[in-house]
Hints:
- The protein has two domains: 2-124; 135-216, no CATH class.
- The protein has eight helices and four strands, in the order αααααααβαβββ.
- The protein has helices spanning 9-18, 23-31, 48-59, 69-74, 80-94, 100-108, 111-119, 164-173; strands at 145-148, 178-183, 190-198, 210-216.
- Strand 1 (145-148), helix 8 and strand 2 form a beta-alpha-beta unit.
- It starts with 8 loop residues before the first helix and ends with a strand.
Amino acid sequence: LMKYVYIDRETFYNWRDSMPDSIERTLVLTVWSFSNNLHDYLWGKKIEKEKLQLTRAIFWGDTETKLDGLYSYAKNETSIAGKYRMFHKWRLEKMNIRSRYDVLQQLQQLQQLEQLEKLQQLEKLQHLEFLTLDYRSLKIGPEDVVYCDPPYIGTGKNYGGFDNESFQRWLANCQAKQIYISEYTQLPHTEVAFILGKKQSFQAKGKRPNELLLKYVK
Length: 218
């Protein structure tokens, strides 16, 4: 997935508006969109170049800044995760970070690379099937494991006019014995399987509640 580590604004909107549905398109739009909304580019125009600078330094070394030292330091690594590890090592050995805030700023610029590395595992799933349809049209059996990530209640985001009441009815009728849901709020007929903590996002301001992994109980 190396070809997706550097996606500027123009490239992102080309994927969004001109490319057919595919796993690659969904990956690009997820990783490089604001709050993973698959529609708006991750950064504003004023800070886009600054945020992409670290990525260019690691993979091409052509920023003409002190960050270009990262390229020779990590060039022998062939994976995204390997280059990310070398960044941490390089930072500790070579960089003169003056404050904790500076460290966080550098780490935040690599969050999208971490997401790519996790999604890279999907390439190993030869049987992976990609579908673009209403979730209510999926054929799900008792042995399937279902994970749902609906718009969170109370956040003011309702992508595509999502109907929560319809979703609750679908949950009650779903044949799967194992159904998990990400939410901030515990839903009816669920138990908290795991508290995932606070989702970190350097775009958002203010406090965030703990994210919950809920298990649907029938």
